[in-house]
Design brief:
By secondary structure, this protein is an alpha/beta fold. The protein is 42% helix and 17% strand. The radius of gyration is 20 Å and the shape is globular. The structure holds 5-S-methyl-1-O-phosphono-5-thio-D-ribulose.
Length: 339
């Protein structure tokens, strides 16, 4: 487990997730534009970490601002907010973080120094909250886990996707810390291999038993009874669906077919009940992510490619969501949304 992002004297330090597990490189980001670029390139990724990085990006703008009056300061901040908003459209945590920082700025009275201090303090608070909230997700989620369970996860919803403790992997970590002897199966997660590169990396580092499979093996391992629970994270949970890394939907349907519970672990900042699945923009990424593995080209030049980064799992496939305030079955969720 690692603290993935740090703020020190107007500089943000974070791990470049594109080069893991081969190299552990820490990058220094000094402007909000640099943070935005790191988000686009997925050096920083995972919904909760994207949220905190967004807050830190805006805190960088505040810290380095030379504005002499409130109007100019707010103009700079809103421009930076727009730059970040245009990086990745799907994870709601990004928009949640922009709104929270802008709200804090608008509410804060006093001079520019006061404003700067309030924004930086809010960003630091959001990072600490992320750790705390994910620990609570872990505690609640661990009540669902039995000694001997084998859990399948997709993508990386671990320490690296958050400030420290993970969401889906928070549940795994908490159960492990309670002494439950569990095992994890990790889908490799094409095209960017967050499962193979990141989930496996962090679980092995924490000595939690993990077996790597390619995405198309999930059905086989389920049909053979090799796993008995699925836990994934989420980029956005809307009224009728869970939006998460491409491939999640297939895993959920397979779990349903094999009578395996399918859980989604996510903080309340990932919930967006003002929207339904049809309202959400699914990020379409560079075709080269599909035609290449690393620097190796694997498809004929000029092939037409589709590369949606996320998919939509209808709520009927979700057994329950695990949040910092407890476990909510999808049936209860439906009732709450009706009321
Ligand atoms: O494209 P990514 O790597 O940012 O996508 C990450 C995921 O889909 C994760 O499962 C999700 O953000 C949950 S992270 C706790």
């Amino acid at each position: 487990m690692v603290r993935t992002i740090e703020w020190r004297d107007g500089v943000v330090y974070t791990i470049d997730q594109t080069v893991l597990p081969k190299k552990e490189v820490w990058i220094e980001l000094k402007t909000c534009e640099q943070v935005a670029q790191a988000l686009k390139e997925m050096k920083i990724r995972g919904a909760p970490l994207i949220g905190v990085a967004t807050a830190y990006g805006l805190a960088l703008t505040a810290y380095h601002s030379k504005a002499l009056n409130r109007k100019d300061f707010m103009c700079e901040l809103e421009f930076a907010a727009e730059t970040i908003r245009n990086t990745r459209p799907t994870a709601v945590n990004l928009f949640w973080a922009v709104d929270r920082i802008l709200k804090k700025a608008r509410e804060t009275r006093g001079g520019i120094d006061n404003l700067k201090k309030a924004i930086i303090t809010e960003a630091l608070r959001m990072a600490d909250e992320d750790v705390e909230v994910n620990r609570r997700i872990g505690k609640h989620g661990a009540t669902l886990i039995n000694d001997g369970d084998v859990i399948l996860t997709h993508c990386n919803a671990g320490s690296l996707a958050t400030v420290e403790y993970g969401t889906a992997l928070a549940v795994v970590r908490a159960a492990w810390e309670e002494g439950k002897r569990i095992k994890v199966f990790a889908d490799e997660t094409r095209p960017l291999l967050q499962g193979a590169r990141l989930t496996v990396f962090e679980l092995m580092r924490d000595n939690i038993p993990v077996t790597l499979i390619t995405d198309n093996m999930a059905g086989y391992v389920m049909s053979k009874g090799l796993i008995n629970k699925v836990i994934v994270g989420a980029d956005r949970i809307v009224r009728d669906a869970v939006i998460n890394k491409i491939g999640t939907y297939a895993v959920a349907v397979l779990a349903h077919e094999n009578n395996i519970p399918f859980y989604v672990a996510a903080p309340s900042s990932t919930f967006d009940f003002s929207k339904s699945a049809k309202d959400v923009v699914i990020e379409e990424r560079n075709p080269e992510e599909v035609t290449r593995i690393g620097t190796e080209t694997i498809a004929p030049e000029g092939v037409q490619v589709m590369n949606p980064a996320f998919d939509i799992t209808p709520m009927r496939y979700v057994t329950a969501v695990i949040r910092e305030d407890g476990i909510i079955t999808s049936k209860e969720l439906k009732e709450r949304l009706k009321g």
